[in-house]
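Re: that chain you flagged

S.,

Sorry for the slow reply, it's been a week of failed gels. I finally had a moment to sit down with the sequence you sent. For the record, here it is as I used it:
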Amino acid sequence: VVLGVSPGSAEVVMDTTWIAGISGLGVRTVAWSPSGSVLAVGTYDADTFLVNCLTWKGMDSPLHHGVVIDDKKYGKAEFEVEVFEETSGQYVGVNLPVRLPVEDPSTSTLLPATGTDRLLFSGTGRFLATVCADKPNVLWIWDASRFELDTVMVHRRPIRDVAWQPGSDTLYLVCGTK
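Prediction finished late last night. Pasting the structure tokens below so you have them in one place:
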């Protein structure tokens, strides 16, 4: 359960128990849009929910982070998902369908990495970048205005940090091993 609480008071502003679809292991991370009108909620089930902060209702069905990307699941007739793979320091377009690399659960860990690990809105609020713990080499870029997957970027090494340039839709990221 995620509770929104106003500082200096005990008033509960938000309680996610009402968001349809959030179940299983629950909420892992949250992020505000730059305008403050949308809250992105990432779950341990690797779904991302966009919540309208005026009505506190989910804005659409959840954004899923699947293992296979194809037109049938993510694309619509008028929009097409673009998938890019990093090769020798450049990004190359990949034909659909694409099977994404998934990290094998470590046998030395009781709790394997799972769920939406990071959520970041672009400076304009148009895009939402997400990274899942079980797919640490994959960056998902969603069009928050259309509730659709826009771009998937597959990297050779795990993504360590992601940041949008303030006030713009330019994304910067760092990849590498520990």
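What I noticed first: Helices lie at 71-74.

Talk soon,
D.
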